[in-house]
Design a protein that fits this description.
Length: 398
């Protein structure tokens, strides 16, 4: 591993006998590096503090002609007001790479990126954003056919295992299941609880609560807590509506916003209209276990938790999602359940093959594939994922 190339450093001694220093290369590093100067704008999406800026710094570490603009700064936002191509050329000067961090803060950023792309030759534009809701909506139409899009998440199992080795990362499993894998949590070995609370309050809510469509922000925070308590369970919009005193449409709007700010994602029930199958159910999962636990204020150790099964399911499903996203392959993810309570925790559908998974924290618990499922979907595979074999499933084959 070329450890000198990367800035993230972790000095850890929690569950291992000797201290070690690791530097973590992101899965998207090579992907984005290979897209430089290939004729398109590069857009990198991901939650705040997930490592977007650090990743771009790493990709461009040997470049000397980079103009870096942080749109969280008021003067940078002012710079883009009523800007023309000629003025932008003067600002860019001799630089060949322009990075606009947190680009969703700039009004009409899509149109302005299009002007730069169309009228300034020989440059590479990179824009990052922590709110897909804002940045994607602002760039989709103006940059049609002019962009590459990528999504960055908290560290994946593969990234962390590549930085040390599989054995060392497996030793950290109980820590990851509770504290998650945000870069700041992984690279620091103290004050994880305080760091996660600050991360949640200062950064996670920053994009969400500033959105002008949020009329009752306290209701959205309450909704997030309800969803955090219900990970792995089927979500009823009607029950959430009654609990919060919000209409069904507002509940859906808030959940969509939480998805587009990279807090949660949903799994829908899989069905091909068989009479026994649930058709309209959905489950909500969090991209990061640490954020989920910070929201409910519970950082109890894995061994003592009543919700360890839910945390394990959330961890595995989020890791599977990250793995498949980084592979850039076509896939669909679902859960499956029938009215008589036959259930599969996760289905990954690729190339018309149904890869079915049962997710068990206890390796000794028996699990069988539903005969109903296997008869309905003959093109299938089946595995049980538990702490003794999850690395085999989450690691790419090299």
């Amino acid at each position: 591993m070329e450890s000198q190339n990367y800035r993230y450093i972790c000095d850890c001694n929690r569950e291992i006998s000797v201290k070690f220093v690791i530097m973590i290369k992101r899965e998207l590093h090579t992907v984005i590096n290979n897209k430089l100067f290939k004729g398109k704008v590069i857009l990198l999406f991901g939650a705040r503090q997930v490592g977007k800026s650090t990743l771009i710094h790493h990709v461009l570490k040997n470049a000397s002609d980079v103009l870096w603009l942080n749109a969280d700064d008021v003067d940078v936002i002012a710079l883009f007001e009523n800007i023309s191509a000629s003025r932008m050329k003067k600002i860019i000067g001799a630089n060949k790479i322009i990075v606009i961090d947190e680009a969703q803060s700039i009004n009409d950023i899509g149109k302005k990126l299009k002007i730069m792309y169309d009228q300034i030759e020989g440059i590479q534009i990179i824009a990052t954003g922590s709110s897909a809701f804002e940045l994607k909506n602002k760039t989709n139409e103006p940059l049609t056919g002019r962009k590459w899009e990528y999504h960055l998440y908290p560290f994946s199992f593969q990234e962390l295992a590549n930085a040390t080795n599989i054995l060392e990362e497996k030793r950290m499993l109980k820590e990851r299941v509770v504290m998650g894998a945000y870069p700041e949590i992984v690279v620091n070995n103290t004050d994880e609880e305080e760091r996660l609370k600050l991360l949640t309050e200062s950064y996670l809510y920053k994009d969400i609560l500033k959105w002008n469509g949020i009329q009752k922000p306290e209701k959205l925070v309450h909704l997030l807590k309800l969803l955090a308590y219900q990970i792995g369970a089927e979500i009823s919009y009607n029950k959430l509506s009654n609990e919060l005193g919000l209409d069904h449409v507002t509940i859906e709007k808030y959940i969509l916003l939480l998805e587009q700010c990279y807090v949660i994602f949903r799994l829908n029930a899989y069905s091909t209209n068989h009479a026994k199958e649930l058709k309209k159910s959905r489950k909500i999962f969090f991209y990061d276990n640490g954020i989920r636990n910070a929201i409910i204020g519970d950082f109890g150790i894995a061994e003592n938790r009543q919700d360890i099964g839910k945390l394990w399911e959330n961890y595995i499903i989020a890791e599977m999602f990250k793995k498949l996203q980084y592979q850039n392959k076509n896939f669909e993810m679902y859960f499956w359940r029938t009215h008589d309570q036959q259930e599969i925790d996760l289905i990954v559908k690729q190339n018309n093959v149904h890869h079915a998974f049962k997710i068990k924290w206890n390796p000794n618990r028996k699990a069988k594939l539903s005969k109903t499922f296997s008869s309905l979907y003959t093109e299938h595979t089946f595995q049980v994922i538990h702490p003794e074999n999850y690395d085999e499933i989450l690691m790419d084959e090299k």
